[in-house]
Amino acid sequence: MPPDPMSAADRHVVVGMSGGVDSSVASFLLREQGFSVSGIFLLTDDATCQALEDSRAVCRQLVIPFEAIDVRDRFRTQVVDAFVDAWLAGLTPNPCVLCNPTVKFDLLREAADRLGARWIATGHYAAVRRTTDNRLGLVQTDAGRKDQTYFLYRLGQDLLSRLLLPLADWQKDAVREKAVQAGLIAADGHSLGQKADSQDICFIPDGDYPALIRREAARRHVPVGRLFDPGPVVDPDGKTIGRHKGLLHYTVGQRKGFEVRTTERLFVLAKQPGTNTLVVGPYGLLFRRRIRLADIAWSGAARLDDGHRVLARVRSSAAKVAASAWLLPDKTLSVVFDQPTALAAPGQSCVLYEDRLILAGGIIMDDMSD
Predict the structure, then answer these.
(1) Which of 4, 68, 75, 182 has the smallest CB count inside 10 Å?
(2) Minimal CA–CA distance to 363: which of 91, 74, 173?
(3) Of 243, 265, 281, which residue sits at a domain end?
(4) Which residues, listed in sequence order, are joined to residue 291 by a DSSP beta bridge?
(5) Is residue 256 located within the same domain as residue 314?
(6) Domain region containing 292
């Protein structure tokens, strides 16, 4: 965990500006605490132009240096292309989980190094804590529904050692009130305290991810196969009960978007690209006792002993559930829940906590059998 900022030898911090209330208030608080603050905006796609102007306006009000960095090429290659490829492979990716360590925070660190800044900071609702094993881990705070540790679990020790999170102990309402009190305004003159939170995936503002996948796949000449073709909907026994509009429109756990000849509430259980078939069934069939996680990111723990007790979180909106974890010879993690749990789709993340501290996390694999 960073030392007390008032006693730090180097007070220079680079703040990732988003044009929203959180990063703006974070910058304001750091300046109040005596830091020398530099605002950095990462231009990731054309849809962020308004956020760019709002960030510029805030830095002008705070009288701090501002720099916009055009990272559209890197963002498209490392985030958008990876998002598209995962969907085409039958997975349901979470682009924010990937973007944070590989693009956003890595670029902020590069900017900090170039500007001679010791620290990087953002307006995320989380905290960094040093463990008894002298590791750094992200910790949930009292931010409630705004907790963002799930999305940041892949940040490595090097990034955590330079990270300041000024909003760790703040509630969202208090942040908005602080923005009003500080007189922070957007480029259009409206108070940032009233600005709506960003929603959905930043590079898909209209939420139409199938259209983006079709467009980006065509740009790269990547075949989409039959993923956009209509096909049969079957029950768990293989009986055809309806039609779907293309497998790319569905993810495991989804309840709507397919036509079936029944009044029963059904959910997507699996996609079978080989036969262009969507398998649906009652909610109870989504529950599993065991999953495997790949591409493990270690945070508060460097390893886990066999049977290590954890609290597992299988989606950002899910409550943590009791489980045990085993590290397998192939470096994947087997997670066994105390009680059957409704899981997120393959490609999503499962994050493992000890109380509020993140120990590790990984990507849910396609094989979720008991």
Answers:
(1) 4
(2) 91
(3) 281
(4) 335
(5) no
(6) 286-364
Q: Taking all residues of the chain, what is their mean pLDDT, rounded to a whole number?
A: 92
What backbone torsions phi and psi does residue 74 show, to the nearest 5 degrees? -65, -40
pLDDT tens track for 277-314:
999 999 999 999 999 999 999 999 999 999 999 999 99
Q: State which amino acid sits at residue 163.
A: L
Could you tell me if 81 and 72 are in contact, meaning their C-beta atoms sit under 8 angstroms apart?
Answer: no
Instruction: Answer whether residue 222 is part of any domain.
Output: no
Question: Residue 7 has what pLDDT?
Answer: 41
Q: What token pair was written down for 323?
A: 């489980």
**Nearest residue to 258 (alpha-carbon basis) of 270, 246, 275:** 246
Of the residues 281, 316, 348, the one at which a domain ends: 281
Asked if residue 173 and residue 45 are part of one domain, the reply reads yes
What phi and psi, each to the nearest 5 degrees, are found at residue 54?
A: -65, -40
Q: Say whether pTM exceeds 0.85.
A: yes
Q: Is residue 370 part of a domain?
A: no
Backbone torsion region of residue 268, taken as left when φ is above 0, otherwise alpha when ψ lies between -120 and 50, otherwise beta? beta
State the pLDDT confidence band at 219, using cuts at 50, 70 and 90: very high
Residue with tokens 């008991």: 370
| Residue 103 shares a structural domain with residue 134 | yes
Tell me which residues are annotated as active site: 99, 202
Instruction: Assess whether 58 and 100 both reside in one domain.
Output: yes
Tally of domains within the chain? 3
pLDDT tens digit sequence for 314-328: 988 889 999 999 999
pLDDT for 367 beyond 60: no
Task: Enter the tokens of residue 81.
Answer: 């292309």
User: 140: pLDDT confidence band, cut at 50, 70 and 90?
Assistant: very high
Instruction: Say yes or no: 308 and 293 in one domain.
Output: yes
- 155 is written with which tokens? 């940040």
Instruction: Kindly state whether residues 58 and 74 are assigned to the same domain.
Output: yes
Do 162 and 118 form a contact (C-beta atoms < 8 A)? Answer: yes
DSSP state at residue 80? I
Q: How many residues are there in the chain? A: 370
Please identify which residue in the block is written with the tokens 């750094």: 136
CATH number at residue 310: 2.40.30.10
Residue type, 121: A
